[in-house]
Structures are given as structure tokens and as C-alpha cells.
Design goal:
The complex is a heterodimer of chains A (84) and B (232).
Chain A lengths: L4 H39 L4 H31 L6
Helix pairs in contact in A: 1-2
Chain B lengths: L2 H9 L4 E5 L2 E4 H21 L10 H45 L16 H23 L15 H36 L4 H28 L8
Antiparallel strand pairs in B: 1-2
Helix pairs in contact in B: 2-3, 3-6, 4-5, 5-6
The chains are: A mainly alpha (84), B mainly alpha (232).
């Protein structure tokens, strides 16, 4: 077994857990924003453009944290700082 | 170099080169950034030759973007605010938008990548925006602009400082994470099913690039809003 085996195994496992949790979080968060926006668009169809713009802003803000988590997972797999 | 590092350097190249001892610059990022600047300059130059009253062609497209951005700025900053910061905000949006989409081009001779897939570019832009908000604030309101840190009461100072530090951090990480993850996934999909599968992801990435540029610009405009509202 090479020197780094435990670290590599732990990093890959950690990246997998991060991936699962990030995708769950992103879906849940985006669905709340989008469903509220759809509801409001159905109540006031003439303001639909306004709601759509604000929904996109909201989705962008909500998705930022899962994407940062995905970047951490990518760093663990590809550019692991513990593996020389 | 391990296997993972070799694999990742096939997907995302930064081409770090040492120009003087101790200074390492990612040359791929610099070249792509220059290319983005050239494309933005070419688009705006081409749109402002023979300016017509009733626009058509590229002048029409550019005017669509500028009118839309002007609308955003006016609703958040007022007419005076729009007059002050419109060139800054429009340039920022065009640079980030074209930069995000540049990484989706196929490799013809040279390898195209987005300048914003580098963490340095993302942080450079967000720190520039944060410092610019302060500079514009001091130019507009004088040194008492700094009183916004202790408003509404002095005990809010730590919270306001944390907010001022976390805004550029989240702006940069959001932009960088979206674009880097998109490019890595594009590379991986290309390895799996070469000419069919990446097209779907490129379609989605076009929207993501525009959305991230819009969100960055919108956060800049919102960060500038407290500067321009002291006219009672």
C-alpha cells in the first residue's frame, strides 16, 4: 500500500458525501424559491416578468453555497493538498 | 505528480509560468482575459459605427443590454446614480458575460477557457468592486460615507464589518465555482461521449454564464445602493 492510501480513501469518501449533500441542498433550496415564484406568477400574471427576474436572482444566491461545496469536493479529488 | 493531478491538468490548464523569480502568473488566464477584452472592445466598437436613430444589427443587440442594465440601475440607484456608475457596471457585465461564454468554444488550434475559471480573476473582480464601492461612496458623500458602518447604532460595527468582508468572498466564490464546475464537467462529458453529450451541457452552460454575470452585476448595483440614497 502506498504512503497516501488512507488519505486518498478518506478524500474520495469525503468528496462523495459532499456531493450527495450539496445536490440535496441545491434541489431543496431551489424548489422552494421556484415554487413560491410560480405561485406568485399565477396570482398576478401581469407581473410575471418581474417575478421571473427576482426568481433568477434568488436561485443564483441559493445555489452559491452548494456550488462552493462542490468546489471543495473537486479540490479534494483533483488538487488534494494533503497528497504530495 | 499523482494520477489525479495529471488528470486534472488535462481538463483545466492554467499554464503557470514564472516571469521573474518568485512571480508565477497563469498565462492561459492572462491570454484568455486579453481575448475577452478584445472581443468586448470589438463588439462595442462595431456597434458604435454609424449610429442610427432606429438601431439594427449589432447596435440593436448592444442597446438591448444597455437599456436593460440602465433599467436595473435606475430602479436601484436613481437617475443620478445611473449617470455616475453606468460605464463601470456595463463594462463589468460585458466582461464577465463574454468571459463566461468564452470557455464553451471548441478547441480550434488553441484551447479556449474562461478567464473566470481562475480563482484569482474572480477574487480580483470582487475585491475591485468592493474597493470601488468605497471610492465612489467617498467621492459622492465625502468622508462621512464611513458613517454607514456605525449606522443605525455603534454596536452594529462588527456585523457591518463582517458583511463588508463576506460580500466579496461570496460573490467571487459563486462566480468561480459555477464556471469551474461547468468546465470540469464539460471536459469529463467529452471523455465519456465525445461529440453528442457535451452539446446538451453547453446549452445549459450558456444560460449559467449569463445568469452568473447578471447576478454579479446585480450584487454590485445593490452594494452601490446605499451610496446614492442620501438625498432627502
Amino acid at each position: 500500500m502506498a504512503d497516501n492510501t488512507v488519505i486518498i480513501v478518506a478524500s474520495v469518501l469525503g468528496a462523495a458525501i459532499i456531493g450527495a449533500c450539496a445536490s440535496l441542498a441545491a434541489s431543496k433550496g431551489d424548489s422552494v424559491v421556484a415554487s413560491k415564484a410560480l405561485e406568485c406568477m399565477a396570482r398576478q400574471p401581469e407581473q410575471a416578468g418581474n417575478f421571473q427576474v427576482n426568481m433568477l436572482i434568488g436561485i443564483g444566491m441559493v445555489e452559491s453555497i452548494p456550488i462552493i461545496a462542490s468546489v471543495i469536493a473537486i479540490v479534494l479529488v483533483f488538487a488534494n493538498p494533503f497528497v504530495k | 505528480m499523482g494520477i489525479a493531478e495529471a488528470a486534472s491538468s488535462e481538463i483545466i490548464h492554467y499554464a503557470p509560468t514564472q516571469i521573474i523569480p518568485g512571480v508565477v502568473i497563469n498565462m492561459q488566464t492572462v491570454y484568455m482575459s486579453w481575448l475577452t477584452m478584445a472581443i468586448v472592445a470589438a463588439i462595442v466598437f462595431a456597434a458604435t459605427r454609424n449610429v442610427q436613430k432606429i438601431p439594427s444589427g449589432i447596435q440593436n443587440i448592444l442597446e438591448m443590454f444597455i437599456e436593460w442594465l440602465n433599467g436595473l440601475m435606475e430602479s436601484n440607484l436613481g437617475v443620478e446614480g445611473r449617470r455616475v456608475v453606468a460605464p463601470f457596471v456595463i463594462t463589468l457585465f460585458l466582461y464577465i458575460f463574454i468571459g463566461n461564454e468564452l470557455g464553451l468554444l471548441p478547441q480550434v488550434g488553441m484551447h479556449f477557457s474562461s478567464p473566470t475559471n481562475d480563482i484569482n480573476v474572480a477574487f480580483g473582480l470582487s475585491i475591485m468592486v468592493s474597493v470601488a464601492v468605497y471610492i465612489i461612496g467617498v467621492l459622492q458623500q465625502g468622508p462621512k460615507y464611513f458613517r454607514h458602518l456605525i449606522s443605525p447604532f455603534t454596536a452594529m460595527l462588527p456585523l457591518n464589518i463582517i458583511e463588508e468582508l463576506s460580500k466579496p468572498l461570496t460573490m467571487a466564490l459563486r462566480l468561480f465555482g459555477n464556471i469551474l464546475a461547468g468546465e470540469i464537467l464539460l471536459g469529463v462529458l467529452n471523455e465519456l461521449v465525445p461529440y453528442l453529450l457535451p452539446n446538451l451541457w453547453i446549452g445549459f452552460s450558456l444560460i449559467v454564464g449569463f445568469l452568473q454575470a447578471f447576478i454579479f452585476t446585480m450584487l454590485t448595483v445593490i452594494a452601490l445602493a446605499p451610496v446614492f440614497k442620501v438625498k432627502h
